[in-house]
Amino acid sequence: MSADIAICGLGPAGRALAHRCLARGMTVLVVDPNPRRVWRATYAAWSDELPAWLDGSVVAATVARPRAHGLREHSIPRAYSVLDTTRLQQSLDLTGATVVPGRAVALDRRTVTLDSGRVLRAGRVVDARGLRRRPGRAEQTAYGLKLTRDTTSEPALFMDWRPDNGAVPGATPSFLYAVPLGADAVLYEETCLVGAPALTQGELARRLHHRLRARHIATAGDEPVERVRFPVAGGRPGAGRFGAAGGYLHPATGYSVAAALAAAESVAAGGSGWTTAARAVHRLRQAGLRALLALPPTEIPRFFDAFFDLDIELQRAYLSRRDDPIGMLTAMSGLFFGLPAPVRTRLAAATLGLRPISLRGSGSVIME
């Protein structure tokens, strides 16, 4: 069996790429162990990240000015969209593609070998299988509850580090993410940004319930639960990989869906998605993650205060632009000089990849 392109993995990245290849009239093979799997996760993006070709009906809710909390409150002047997961999956129509149920065990530029021994051939092979969990690989974890809108008037919160979740002082920190899922529901999610190991579901659930009680937000005990756990490191940029597997995951946020949607058109047209500028931004973001990981828990809220004090264009460069190394450097510089001198020393050493200046087991940062 052969085609113009074979795409392994039917998560949001692989499905988006297959959809855009079909729109260009290409013959498409898609391989996935469970191609009929229904997506359950909540996906969101800054509204200006969404490509023009995406069906507008996939947006379940838009927040004009989400808020963030470090030690202070911030109103972010950038619209944020929460996607309707079911509509997103349905809108990425695969009519015309040849869907092959199976697990890809070996890939090269032209062939895909399945665990059954079957070999598929294509003019181009793309790995969009995401990232596998491995011992020692940093992960993001989260535990969320979907509550009815009438239970709370809490505003949309992109990131809330206020210490009302019952965490022990000096423990690995977590933040609250709270966004509307449409007209009738709100997701409240306690999130460990990154950890090795990351916070467990049990600890995150305990913190979320503590935080909700502290804010007088009632729960009935039968709310739908969302559990999140995925690696945030290990993606490798390259023409044969796409989505999280190909380095599209933002190492400081865990976001990858919007980046994959935005790049799907150009990759379908034959581009690699990895210009020299994009590779430079990727390396800078990895350095930024090292800097973040070097901070002790008490400095995390201050760090994000400095970030959200940046001009919105610099925030956009850091969070969204994959091909703007100058904007990325300017954002990192502004963030650096917005922090106290002792914190800057720690960040400089970590960004340059120098020896850690905290002792193992000290609880420094989100991740040791």
Query: How much helical structure, as a percent, in the residues?
Result: 25-40%
Shape call: globular
What is the makeup of the main sheet?
7 strands, mixed
Structural class: alpha+beta
Per-chain topology:
Layout: E1 2-8, H1 12-23, E2 28-32, E3 44-46, E4 59-63, E5 67-69, E6 73-75, E7 80-83, H2 85-91, E8 98-101, E9 104-107, E10 111-114, E11 119-127, E12 139-148, E13 157-160, E14 175-180, E15 185-195, H3 201-214, E16 225-231, H4 257-268, H5 276-293, H6 300-308, H7 312-319, H8 325-337, H9 341-351
Parallel strand pairs: 1-2, 1-11, 2-8, 5-13
Antiparallel strand pairs: 3-7, 4-7, 5-6, 9-10, 10-11, 12-15, 12-16, 13-14, 14-15
Helix pairs in contact: 1-4, 5-8, 5-9, 7-8
Describe this structure in words.
The protein has 368 residues and is of the alpha+beta class. It is built from nine helices and 16 strands. The strands form three sheets. Strands 6-5-13-14-15-12-16 form a seven-stranded mixed β-sheet, with helices on both faces. Strand 1 (2-8), helix 1 and strand 2 (28-32) form a beta-alpha-beta unit. Helix 5 packs parallel to helix 8 and helix 5 (276-293) crosses helix 9. The longest helix is centred in the last third of the chain and has 18 residues, at 276-293.
